[in-house]
Design a protein that fits this description.
This protein has 241 residues and is of the alpha+beta class. Helices cover 42% and strands 20% of the residues. Strands 2-6-4-5 form a 4-stranded antiparallel beta sheet. A 3-stranded antiparallel beta sheet has the order 1-7-3, with no helix packed on it. A hairpin with a 5-residue loop joins strand 4 and strand 5. Helix 6 crosses helix 8 and helix 6 packs across helix 9. One of its GO terms (molecular function) is DNA-binding transcription factor activity. This is Crp/Fnr family transcriptional regulator. Keywords: DNA-binding, Transcription, Transcription regulation.
Length: 241
Amino acid sequence: MSEIRVRNPVIAKLQHATALRAEDRAVLEALTAQAIELPAHAELVREGDCPPHVHVVLSGFACRYKTLPDGGRQIMAWLTPGDFCDLHVAVLGAMDHAVATLSPSRLALLPRNGMEEITDRHPALARAFWWATLVDAAILREWLVNLGRRPGEQRIAHLFCELLARLRATGLAEDGEMDFPLTQADLADTVGLSAVHVNRIVQDLREAGLIKWRSGRLRILDVAGLESLAGFNPSYLHLLR
């Protein structure tokens, strides 16, 4: 499958779910036309909130996370351009986790109360939104396997491979290179390891000639080698179109 290159990352992502007609794309363009810009580490939604909007990432990185009583943070999802931060809130109401930016980001705000009307009038968008929710669940299952069964080096390698596949799908990665504005502390909170351990693993991956990570950019120098190390199979991302 060739990379999809369109200006709007939401359309680029959802075209993997179903064939979008011109009117479907026009609706998505209108929904994402108004956006807000936020700095890194801005809190979008707190656990327990009932936000009036569904947030969609247009640029930058955000995350879903939970904070433990001792102040520790577990990141449960990386949200990249084209991703819905809280699509399920249109059905479930109160949030059971928090959402924050990881880098300076631009986000569209979709009216929560209007989501049902949109899906009723545009069946292809209803299917695409449902697909996005199911893919989020599939990614979460893979992350559970990552945390529970893979050693540290494989955890990080697998996340890098996943991110490359996801950003390629929206035309935001080329020749194995992509934006990666996270800190090693963010990565540690994602893989459940100490920052010291993460630093050591990243150095090992660099010395093995597998990656180059510098100034907010990540380049996978040997994609096949990193995928082999991680045991990466992208089928759970369901990028079939």
